[in-house]
Hints:
Two copies of one chain form a homodimer.
Chain A: E1 8-16, E2 27-35, E3 38-42, H1 44-51, H2 55-69, E4 74-78, H3 81-84, H4 93-105, E5 109-113, H5 130-147, E6 154-159, H6 173-181, H7 183-197, E7 202-207, H8 212-223, E8 230-236, H9 243-255, E9 261-267, H10 293-312, E10 316-321, H11 345-357, E11 361-365, E12 371-377, E13 379-385, E14 388-394, E15 398-403
Parallel strand pairs in A: 1-15, 3-4, 3-10, 4-5, 5-6, 6-7, 7-8, 8-9, 9-10
Antiparallel strand pairs in A: 1-12, 2-11, 2-13, 13-14
Amino acid sequence: MDKYMHRKAEIRLHVLYPDGTPAAGEQIHVDQISHSFLFGCGAFDSVALMKAEDPQEKAFLQERMDKWLGLFNYGTLPFYWGRYEPVEGTTAFPETMAAARWLQEKGVRVKGHPLCWHTACAPWLMKYDNQEILCRQLERIHRDVSLYKGVVDMWDVINEVVIMPVFDRYDNAITRICKDLGRIRLVKEVFAAAKETNPEATLLINDFNTSVSYEILLEGLLEADVPISAIGIQSHQHQGYWGLEKLNDVLERFSRFGLPIHFTENTLISGEIMPAHIVDLNDWQVDSWPSTPEGEERQAREISEMYSVLFAHPLVEAITTWDFNDGCWLNAPSGFVYMDNREKPSYYALQKLIHGEWETHDVLTADEEGYISFNGFKGGYCIAVGQADAAFAANGPVNEKIILAP
Amino acid sequence: MDKYMHRKAEIRLHVLYPDGTPAAGEQIHVDQISHSFLFGCGAFDSVALMKAEDPQEKAFLQERMDKWLGLFNYGTLPFYWGRYEPVEGTTAFPETMAAARWLQEKGVRVKGHPLCWHTACAPWLMKYDNQEILCRQLERIHRDVSLYKGVVDMWDVINEVVIMPVFDRYDNAITRICKDLGRIRLVKEVFAAAKETNPEATLLINDFNTSVSYEILLEGLLEADVPISAIGIQSHQHQGYWGLEKLNDVLERFSRFGLPIHFTENTLISGEIMPAHIVDLNDWQVDSWPSTPEGEERQAREISEMYSVLFAHPLVEAITTWDFNDGCWLNAPSGFVYMDNREKPSYYALQKLIHGEWETHDVLTADEEGYISFNGFKGGYCIAVGQADAAFAANGPVNEKIILAP
């Protein structure tokens, strides 16, 4: 059995020339040009690119994003409240919206991350009482989900709820209200705000906790009718690859809700593994964390294996690697490219899957009535006969007439 | 400040002789004869006592239960489905009901444990499909809660839900339906069945898992309006005393729901501590687990400390020690008496608290109008002047006229 069967569609086309005559017996070039599946990555540098004024910096970021676009069709943009709105009322709207539109024009779906989180939260919120904090949190959601509607229609609505009310690294406004309201009520409120502002949006809950606690939280939220579109699972593996056993266990446990699963924040590194005793990854602060040749082979191998398992799972709809380049979060060698933008083995390994094994390209001979049939990966297609061509979408079975344009 | 203030009531009595004249200036003996607080223990041997036919065995069990009654006012009786109803339709009703009535006559509140649990479940259920299993589970609840109404009005409705759907030690009917329905729906169903059968009953959920998972489960259940009367917390400490830090942490975390808390299954042992690497306590199978003199002192000290912390906490309403005598669960030295019924130091240590420090006994002089006032631990009282006496209950403030009986 084809383990990727659910990723493919039966496609039958009646190929006609511009004048309406069938392309009988012709050689038809079939080329998939985009994926239905969301292959994602952090796209924070697209915001930097929008702001860059120095030509050298701009060229460097442009080169980086070109390589990014060589792999991905789905990008995460930063909406950390404390950075997005460092002073109440002064937001990073211009550059963030410019980046979102720029990505959208290139065919990239954009997700905003996150609308509610205790970390990187706005410090100015702490001067308000809990009722007012909640009020401003909901206003913030109304404002941003509304402003970006049509450009950003996917949101990590709330992040890391399992730990949220007991997070004790530092006082912050969101832990305060979560402790006050309880997890379920807070999640209900923030999802309701997002849903009423953009009813068509894809709304995620996201967590690094993959234990039974997160499962039970999801049960409680679904029983409380919280409109969760997809379950977000973080998988930062600075302390070593989960391996097939843990990966399959997580997939099995989170599948039972029947909801789409998004791997929202994946990290596999190409350097030394962080010691297992570190509980909060942020505690591992190093000046330099070199990528090594052995590490790079390992990273490429692990990425290939993990993406293959996830792509084969019927409920997984998206995989996002967190860092595109080395030297981002925790200074880790976590990217597909080095800090100077040169591709690492993991870049080519993933390219071989996304734009190789998992992409349909073929040359088919139309039958005497001009029909071709094939089973191809879901996404956008282009067919061509000589100079004439046409595009179509195949997110499911296709059985249609297609007229080539000269 | 008195840390037991919430355990006490202001009591003012106008003491009158049978003929209606005030007991002015008299010496009044005030003696607390029972507790409002539930000091509990497993009372499984009361069922054995009901069944005992051999006179020697009967005398031995009678002696054991007499000592039991010397400490406790609250007992847990076994309703493990597989043992209570080993063959479908054939139950241990006669001896269980006899034991419950016997305890009730002695002023003991009785709790049934448990109505739904994956462990010790009836094997004959497994021949049914999941819908039928659920159906029979709910019928079982309706039947037993109804049959025992007025005698057993407290129930551990469901036990160990956190692990229930992922319990993998052996296949069983309850894990099957919990996996199928999800935790919250199953808990909803079993509580609804118990509640509609006995709306006045005290209905508990009970778990050994005291992690954030149980907290989140409770959040979900309360949001789903499950009528939980009290939160049951197990505290089997075969691997060593929790200590004040863990105990206070658990109390703080489970207090935020504002519900009464019952410590339902407490164990502190007087022998060698079970190694920390054992995950499922049932895996520690030993032929002999001796009680040691040092262990007995430690057990007595730990019990005194733990009971004192719990009795001081305003939301705790019950503490149940699991085993009354050594050699029960896991063959552990977990009792207040040895296997031969001799009292251990822990027996006297707890007696000193329950029937010493935490019990009000006094001799007061009535004023010239026959009034006495005092602040006493909540419970039942007897007052006496010479041969004349009277009883009253003080579960809260009391301000009343009391007529002595000759």
